[in-house]
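Readers of this paper often ask what the protein records in our data store actually look like. Nothing more is needed to write down the fold, since each code stands for a local backbone conformation. Below, we set out a record of this kind in full and without editing:
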Amino acid sequence: MATIVSPDIQQAGKNWWLLLVWGIATIVLGIYLIFQPGMTAVLLVQVMAAFWLVGGAFDVVNGVVNKEDQQRLWRIIGGLAGIIAGGIILINPLLGTFITLAFQYYLLAIGAIFIGVINIAGWNRTPGSHWSLGSTLLGILQVLIGLFLIAHPIIGILALLTTFGVLAILAGAGAIFMSFRVKMLTGN
């Protein structure tokens, strides 16, 4: 029996190899995040800083040139912030990486505590629902994890980078699988 393939899948099938390359690159990134977390984090933050710098410059130019844009002031302010942040990180990559990772890390830790308290207190229950032991235990676990992360930041940041590495490897494997799946479905 013939399989009906959508036009979107047909188009993707012509470039299935791009998804394959993306998957391989993502797996390589994941391996580097696991085995060389510091160097890889610095490199990724540097790439992000370059995007902020270039994107900020485009936003400033766009805000200055498009005088009829009602949001031009905000575009210029956001562009200047991107230029400043990108420039600072590019000038001092280690400090920039540390600040970026620390911000992400503490946001995650505080978020875990906050969501844990919500689960313990039951503020996430729908009206008419009853107390749940599972939700309460999950909330306690979330609060404990958040407190552990705050108490042990070095271990937590290394675990965060390793977790990102594992997730990148899984995502890369999924992309590779999908590339061959798309290739098979479209007969390319």
